[in-house]
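Deliverable D5.2: sample structural annotation.
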Amino acid sequence: MLRRNSCKCLTSVRFGSYTPPITQFSYIQDVLSDSSKEEVAKYLKNLGPFPTYSNILNPQHFYQNAVLLDYSKQHPHPVSLRQLAGFGNTLSKQKIINSANFVRIELPIRLAMRIRDLQTLPFGVVNNFHLAQIYESYYHSFNAFRKIPKIHTIEENNKFCKTLSSLLDDHVFNLSHLMMGALEVAIAESLPQKELDSFMSTMLRSRISRRVIVEEHLSLSKNYMQKPYDRKPPHYLGEMFHDCNAVENLNIVAEMVKNSMRASYPDIERMPDLEIEGDLNTHFQFMVPHLHYLFHEIIRNSFEATIKTHSTKTSKILPPVKVIIIDSKKNVLFRISDQGGGINHDKLKNIWSFAKDPNLARKSLSNFHRIPGLQLYSNLRVTPAGSSIVTQQAENIIQGTSIGDRNKEKKSTLEDLMARPHQYELGLGLPMCSVYADYWNGQLTMNSLEGYGSDTSLMLSKLGYHSNIIQLDRA
């Protein structure tokens, strides 16, 4: 015992001072008081692999992941809009059952691929709170879908549709978390710009594909229950694709933008008008929430730039925002022009990136938390053993989807983002729009004359002519 003590003394002499033992607070900076250290230490257990708030990450997760790896090695089935809608040209019991089993098999594979992408991110990225929420949500759905047995009857399909509808509701918050996660990654500079943009594009494309596949099946099931064996026209793509009048939808969105600006610019009579020229009778099939979001972010930027540039210089009505519609056989082109002062060319090349300047990202993140009614937390539940639970309370199998009643109380995340007050700038509108346009085989570009204004060109493919392109393989 004496020898041990003497060794301890020698050690202290050798290194010049006594080294305190390692404690649970050792990694915390010395500038913190003991009380602060104790307060911070309460949360240390949530920095480990199994945080207490997690429903998915438990000691069994490693073994569950072996199942996921098997699914992630499989390939999603390439499918086009035309093939997907082909189920609905002439509805029958067997087609509905085949469609249900396609969705049942396809979703776990596609979810596994995205979960694996999240797992391979750097620790400082995947450990981000918002991305961790997405991880849990995806794993919850993966667990639920892989356990659903083969569907043989219409009654089993009806139950399956309620599960699909409930999972759509559970996933409504994911888009918000994805965007906020990107902002926090930009603040921390945890990923290079190219990698962050690639990750966000992949996640968004995959989300669109999964939701189109799910909603297409829900619409087919609804149609079969209402009109079994009904025949659809040759150009039928599904109930979620509406016949869109270009002028009508542009005016709806312009009014939406003006209403969001009333608090900041009460002199609404002086706001820019939206002047529409060109092929005014243009109609095309598209998903209305996506179309409105594309129009909204572009028109909002043009209105805002025009007001900032001219509102203090004149008491008259501000210069209009002009839209020219060009309707060709396979595409529709919208050219939106404003006199909002333009954008510096050094900044123009970065407007399509999710990797924002950290200071701008902080402001955007702060605004995100102020958006009224935006759901940030999921309804996910699990059993004590960690199995996913899906509540099936949906009486209407399409309630809350984009094919439901447009006047439904429940809104999509895109609708919540568009309805936000004008002052809550998020900084991700154009990068998001670029991904959405590209997904539907379109293109979004901008030219700017600094000191005068900007021209934004949105080209959208007519889905009827491009429906054989296998875009839903963007898993």
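Annotation notes: Strands lie at 242-245, 274-278, 283-286, 321-327, 331-337, 381-382, 388-389, 443-449, 453-461. The first strand starts at residue 242 and ends at 245.
The annotation will be released with the project's public dataset once the embargo ends.
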